[in-house]
Amino acid sequence: MNRNKTFKQIPDFKLSPTVDKVGVEERVARFQTRSIKNESKVQGLKMVLNMIDLTTLEGKDTPGKVRQLCYKAQHLHDLQEGLPTVAAVCVYPTMVAEAKKALGDSGIKVASVSTAFPSGQSTREIKLLDTQFAVDNGADEIDMVISRGKFLAGDYNFVFDEIAAIKEVCGKARLKVIFETGELASLDQVRRASDIAMYAGADFIKTSTGKIQPAATMQVTYTMLCAIRDFYRKTGVKVGMKPAGGISSSKLALHNLVMVKETLGNEWLNNEWFRFGASSLANDVLMQLVKQETGHYQSADYFSID
To answer: What are the GO MF terms of this UniProt record (predicted)?
Structure first.
């Protein structure tokens, strides 16, 4: 049964709360001034690493490239003892079986984009088939894109019904719903999309595909975290958060963790409820961790290029 069917009344999404843009910017600015001691920084960097969805989503992806990414995901401890694995490897549906085989029993999840990623411009029938194909090939998680054209035209029921239909096909796979916030124009629209996705059954809400800028700004992520907080207070249902696109530095990732802790609390500070959609971020985190241990930065060439 879809989660949306468990609610007695679905809200009118035209009446989603408006967002105080100035208030959001002031709050985000305060998150960025928090000082982090070295011991806490190392703990935070390892937490960030364990929250990353290593990603390859290019037309030139090959089975060999996917296997290489999966190898990196499983062997970070070769660079430094005691490092965790990443949370997941995210690929196109046609590469799910290859990633599943390469990751074996490592415990690292296989995530697949679907629903005509990244544009979302296709029929619902094709989107359902796209998702079913990924699930049938072993995807543990589905990262779908919403139909932004329908959303921006104000057809919120269409967007809600489409998310609910995809959720039904997912079965046991967790569903991350991507908004492509760079196309939504305002924080009010980001808040509305968040509410629609959560009531329709999203397990995670996600900022971006990584193909459009601006992507995961802290203002957008904070707006989505506040929506998750309000939804949890109203329904008792936890929803995860995944900022993706534009987070390439350890410093920015740590600022995001501070924001999660102060908005949602410690319960969300794990990879079951918070993820980063990135690949270059992993290399920067590894570089910072080696620096903390040795006192010296390694050359960027020391880490694999994804």
So the answer is: deoxyribose-phosphate aldolase activity
